[in-house]
Amino acid sequence: MPAMEFTGDIAALQQGMARTRDLAQRRLAILHEIAPARGGRIIEIGCGAGLLLREIALATGPHGLAAGIDVSPDQVAAAEAETAGVPGVRVEVADAAALPFPDAVFDAGIAAHVLEYLDDPPAALRAMRRVLKPGARLVVLATNWDADFWHGTAPETAAPVLAAWRAEMHWPNLPARLGPMMIEAGFTGLRQVPVPVVNTSLGEDQMAPWMARIMAAHAGGEAGTPWLREMAASDGSGEIFYSSVPILTTATAA
Q1: What region does 50 belong to: left with phi over 0, alpha with psi -120 to 50, or beta?
Q2: What pLDDT, on the 0 to 100 scale, is given for residue 10?
Q3: Per residue, what are the HEC states of the chain?
Q4: What pTM value is reported for the model?
Q5: Fewer CB within 10 Å, N- or C-terminus of the chain?
Q6: Residue 61 half-sphere exposure toward CB, CA atoms < 13 A
Q7: Is the dihedral of CA 26, 208, 48, 169 positive or negative?
Q8: Dist. CA 224–CA 235, nearest whole Å
Q9: Residues near 98 by beta carbon (within 8 Å), at least 6 away in sequence
Q10: Cβ atoms of residues 83 and 57 within 8 Å
C-alpha cells in the first residue's frame, strides 16, 4: 500500500513537529477518546516518532500492549528510541493493510494522519477492524487539506508549494469521505469533531514552521526555497497566519 515516505530529512522534520504544543494537544484529544486502561491492548497505525505510543504504554502498564507500526524504518527507529525502557511496547515496520497481529486482540486502534496518504484507506480500515475486538474504539485523525490556509506578504510564492503538497495526497479531504468507508469496514457510531490549529508566528513550538519545511521539501528547492524565505520575512513583519482543522473521527467496531 504506497504512502508518502517519511524517511531521512522528512522523517526528522516530522519528529520535530511531533514535539510541538499543537501536536501535543492532538495527542491529548486522542488519549481522551481511547481512554487507555491498565492492561489494555492498543494499536497505533503510523506511529511516527512514538510520542503517543509512549503515553499509551505508560497508561496501559507492563501487562498491557502498546503496539505501533509504520512503513518507515526511520520512524520505527525513532519510536523505538522514544519508548526504550517502557514495558509493554511493540514497534515494527509493517503495512497498514497487512497488520502482523491475530484477529480481535486490541481494545482500541489509532490512525493519526495516516489514511489520507494511502492509496486504499478502506483496506487499512478493514485490517484495523480485523484486529480490533467487537466494541473496540477506533480513532482516525485526518485533515481536510483544501481548508488549510497560509497567509504571508507574498501569497504568489505559496501557490506552487501548496499545489505540490496537495498532489501528494491520495485523499486530500478524507474526513468528508470517511463515514461510508468506516461503515463498510464494519464500524458504527461515527462521530466527528475538529481539533483546530491557529498559528500567528513561526515559533518552533508551533506546527507552522515544521509543516512549512515539510511542504517546501516536497515541492523542491525551486518552489520551496523562495516560499520559506517569504514566510520568514512575513514572520519578521508580523504577517504570518496559518490555520488547519484536522478532524478527529471516532467509531466502534460492530
Answers
A1: left
A2: 87
A3: CCCCCCCHHHHHHHHHHHCCHHHHHHHHHHHHHHCCCCCCEEEEECCCCCHHHHHHHHHHCCCCEEEEEECCHHHHHHHHHHCCCCCCEEEEECCCCCCCCCCCCEEEEEEECCHHHCCCHHHHHHHHHHHEEEEEEEEEEEEEHHHCEEECCCHHHCHHHHHHHHHHCCCCEHHHCHHHHHHHHCEEEEEEEECCEEECCCCCCCHHHHHHHHHHHHHCHHHHHHHHHHHHHHHHCCCCEEEECEEEEEEEEC
A4: 0.92
A5: C
A6: 5
A7: positive
A8: 16
A9: 1, 127
A10: yes
* The residue type at 200: T
Say if residue 3's pLDDT is above 50. Answer: no
In this prediction, residue 2 carries a pLDDT of 40
Q: How buried is 13 (Cβ within 10 angstroms: 0-12 exposed, 13-18 middle, 19+ buried)?
A: buried
Lowest mean pLDDT among 46-50, 63-67, 118-122, 150-154: 150-154
Place of cell 520512524: 75
C-alpha closest to that of 152 among 209, 82, 217: 209
Grid cell locating 6: 517519511
Non-local (6+) Cβ contacts of 184 within 8 A are: 122
Residue given cell 510541538 in the structure block: 20
What sign does the dihedral 34-121-67-15 (CA atoms) show?
negative
Strand 89-93, strand 197-199: pairing: unpaired
Residues near 38 by beta carbon (within 8 Å), at least 6 away in sequence:
59, 60, 61, 63, 64
Task: Please compute the mean of the pLDDT values over residues 128-153 and round it to a whole number.
Answer: 96
Burial class (CB in 10 A: 0-12, 13-18, 19+), 3: buried
Mean pLDDT across 123-138: 98
| In contact, 55 and 31? CB cutoff 8 Å | yes
